[in-house]
Amino acid sequence: MSSGTLWAVVLVGAVGCYLLKLAGLSVPAAWVERPWVTRVVEFVPAALLAALVAVQVASSGSDLVVDGRLVGLAVAAVALALRAPFIVVLLLAGAAGALVHVVTG
């Protein structure tokens, strides 16, 4: 990719981000204050975080993988469901993932 093409991509991305931000600011307040919109917006950060975690846990490059990361996530989910303290969740998930890597590797 030439430097001219690279800068064109950067500029198009910057303009696109600006327009997206402007579109969000241009929404009338009456639309945003509706109860169903408020409920949906409250779940957006959690959904985005869950999507990022899923991609990081189940992929390696462009391949779909099942390894210790997925086991660690499952152990963390169970520990959270059982209301374990967060530090315990981290330790259990890390230990489970490491154990899978030792056993399979």
List the helices and strands and how they pair.
Layout: H1 3-25, H2 29-32, H3 35-58, E1 59-60, E2 63-64, H4 68-81, H5 86-104
Antiparallel strand pairs: 1-2
Helix pairs in contact: 4-5
The run of helices and strands is: HHHEEHH
Strand order of the main beta sheet, please?
1-2
Helix content: over 70%
- What do the pLDDT scores average to? 92
For this structure, the quaternary state is: single chain
Span of the ends, CA to CA: 38 Å
Give unreliable regions as ranges. none
**Percentage of residues in DSSP E strands:** under 5%
Question: Radius of gyration, Cα only, in angstroms?
Answer: 21 Å
Largest sheet: 2 strands, antiparallel
Class per helix and strand makeup: mainly alpha
- The number of helical runs is 5
- What sort of overall outline do the alpha carbons produce when their principal axes are compared? flat
- Compute the number of strand runs: 2
Describe this structure in words.
By secondary structure, the protein is mostly helical. The chain is 80% helix and 4% strand. It contains five helices and two strands; from the N terminus they run αααββαα. Strands 1-2 form a two-stranded antiparallel ribbon. A hairpin with a 2-residue loop joins strand 1 and strand 2. The radius of gyration is 21 Å and the shape is flat. The two termini are 38 Å apart.
